[in-house]
Amino acid sequence: MRTVIAGGNGKIALRLERLLAGRGDDVAGLIRNPDKAEQVRSTGAQALVCDLESATVDEVAELLVGADAAVFAAGAGPGSGLERKDTVDRAAAELLADAAAKAGVRRFLVVSSMGADTDPPADTDPVFAAYLRAKGAADAAVRAHDDLDWTILRPGMLTDDPGTGRVHLAESTGRDRITRDDVATVLAALLDTPATAGRTLELVNGDTPVPDAVADLTR
Hints:
By secondary structure, the protein is α/β, with parallel strands linked by helices.
């Protein structure tokens, strides 16, 4: 299985690349900065340089040809301003979805955010509010693709604690924390479970082993 991951040098993406490559999959990470290529390669993945803020659909589609799945795990990151919340968290996600459809890559996963479907409260920090709106708009655009087998994953507050392998995964979970290790493990399991297509799922810490949590969604 070949999977191409946007935001290839991000904290979740690096974990996912390591998991997939470790089990023998063919993995590539899309990165904007060529200086991050070795970081991606150290996971066993291929590094592909592509700036999703300036690339065209055709350029991205060319990098996706032959892939079985694409994952959007990119983000503007802490310290970025209002403009990049739109150009990365929204526009780049939409670009990757359009490119996947053009390249014939049906399986498509998105790492989104809790609260992306609701308008942020008036007292929300403006940059964080822009981030939530950008994620919500991107998710809506992905859902509109009937030529993609999409699954949208909305993790709770992310931590760098060691993963437990146990989670709560459902359409509504309530707010809680979740380790980046466990997010990556769930993404890998979702890639293996195409029957989860068409679902928007929340993910937090829990008591259910990841394989069971994903399998429960298809029963």
